[in-house]
Amino acid sequence: RVLSETENNCPDFEFVEYDFLELSKWAEEYETPNPQFKLGESIIRHNHESGNENLNEMIFEYLKPVVVEIKKQHSFYILLQLLDSDNIEVI
Questions:
Q1: C-alpha to C-alpha distance for 84 and 82, rounded to whole angstroms
Q2: What is the DSSP letter of 85?
Q3: What does the DSSP assignment read for 14-35?
Q4: Do residues 81 and 6 touch, judged by C-beta distance below 8 A?
Q5: How confident is the prediction for the chain on average, in pLDDT?
Q6: Global pTM?
C-alpha cells in the first residue's frame, strides 16, 4: 500500500533539505569529465550521458543495511526512497 501511495515519488518535498547532506569532494569529482566515486569497497565510474541512476543505486544499496538495522528496533514500516530515482523499497 505504501508504494502505491507514493507512486514512486518522494511524499514530502517540503522538507527535502531538512537534513541535507553536502559532499563537496563528491560534487567536485562529479564535475570532472570522467568521475569516479568510492563508497565502502565499491568504485563507480560515472558516465554523464547515462544519467545519475548508477550513483543513486550505489547510495541506495549502501543505505539499505543501515535502514534494516533501524527497522529491527521499531515495529513500523520504513520507506527508503531516493529523490528523482527508481530506487524505492519498503523495509
A1: 6
A2: S
A3: GGTTTTPPP-HHHHHHHTSSS-
A4: yes
A5: 82
A6: 0.72
Query: Would you state the cell numbers that stand for residue 38, as one nine-digit string?
Result: 568510492
* Single-letter amino acid code for the residue at 27: A
State the burial class of residue 32 (Cβ atoms within 10 Å of its Cβ: 0-12, 13-18, 19+): exposed
* pLDDT tens string 37-61: 988 888 889 999 988 888 888 889 9
Cell (9 digits) for 71: 527497522
Q: Count the alpha carbons within 13 Å of 24 in the hemisphere toward its beta carbon.
A: 0
Nearest one of 81, 89, 91 to 10, comparing CA atoms = 81
Closest CA to 62 of 78, 40, 91, 90: 40
Residues found in the chain: 91
